[in-house]
Amino acid sequence: MASMITERPGSGKAALSIDVEDWFHAANLGVAREAWEQCELRVERNTMRMLEILDACNARATFFVLGWVAEKCPQLVRAIAAAGHEVASHGYGHVFVYSLRPSEFRSDVLRSKQYLEDLTGKPVRGYRAPSFTITEWAIPILQDLGFDYDSSVVPSVAHDRYGRLDGMDAGRPVVLLRDGFYEVCISCIRLGKRGIPWGGGGYFRLVPYLLWLWGVRRILGSGMPYIFYIHPWEIDAGQPRVTGIKATHRFRHRINLQRCEGRFAALVDAFEWIPICDLIDGCESGAARRSCGDHRADDRGEYASDADPDGQQMRILL
Ligand SMILES: [Zn+2]
Q: Is residue 317 domain-resident?
């Protein structure tokens, strides 16, 4: 990945992430946990198709694998790791973090982390909360369990479901939350201290592709890294339809599914992609520190409020 180091640190650092869950895990569909066993398992073929797309472009990515899926498809996890991608954790049961007690969260995450590590023989360094429902108390638990980073914040306009962490800013996508522990935000196009989500999901399928490409280049051209996410079910237009759900939820889930595989393949081909672990490892060195957003210590003045109110923990923004 030496080719990623450029004269302008940050340009060209595009991190790709895939949340490995099946269509019936998506929160918008509201399929009850008890019904999962009866649902058609489609995650394996969809993820294998994504691996083919990545392989064709020599792209590497981070796969946040749901523990429930890993137990059903252990060979899929091994295939992801064998292809040179980063295997990270999406938790076990896809329960919103803020609806769990801390002890329940710890058990859920540990179960997935240990199982994924058993399958791959490598440490799992990253975590992504189901439906981006991260919350402050979860961070020290993640670090205590041995994670190096969380990637569960979309520093954007309000969303009815997303969780949040204090001090996140669309212009600072990689944040050293605690000594040795990073938050890696999903990319947004900046609008003041908030942003329009520009990192995947329904937005990726809704926005015209060329406009999306323009936005990605704008983010990279501003000296920031770009962080994209997608799910295997988003390239699966043939997945079962769930009836009786709200129209807004159906829209978010199904919009342009039929076009998504082509768009995804084009996006993978358009940039050099690295896994998130490479992005944060690049932040460890001084030169690359600037590549994570060009935010140095002397930039911190206007963000003094990013210190925790109780003064216990100072957030260092990269
Ligand atoms: Zn998920």
A: no
Q: Is residue 126 domain-resident?
A: yes
135: domain CATH number is: 3.20.20.370
The alpha carbon of 94 and the centre of ligand 1 are apart by a number of angstroms equal to 6
**Separation CA 103–CA 124 (nearest Å):** 20
Q: Could you tell me whether strands 273-274 and 149-150 are parallel, antiparallel, or unpaired per DSSP bridges?
A: unpaired
Higher-confidence residue of 68 and 298: namely 68
Burial of 173 (C-beta count, 10 Å sphere; 0-12/13-18/19+): buried
How many domains, in total, are found in the chain? 1
HSE-CB of 201 using CA atoms within 13 angstroms: 20
Q: How far is the CA of 132 from the centre of ligand 1 (A)?
A: 8
Rg, the chain, Cα only: 18
User: How much is the pTM?
Assistant: 0.86
Range of the structural domain that residue 274 is part of: 9-298
Report yes or no on 63 lying in a domain: yes
Instruction: Tell me how far the alpha carbon of residue 114 lies from the centroid of ligand 1, in angstroms.
Output: 19
- Given a cut of 50, whether residue 251 has pLDDT beyond it is yes
**30 Rama class: left (phi>0) / alpha (psi -120 to 50) / beta:** left
pLDDT in tens, 178-227: 999 999 999 998 766 667 889 998 889 999 999 999 999 999 998 899 99
For residue 33, the CA-to-ligand 1 centroid distance in Å is: 14
- Sheet strands (E) in 172-225: 174-178, 181-184, 188-191, 194-197
Mean pLDDT of 110-124: 98
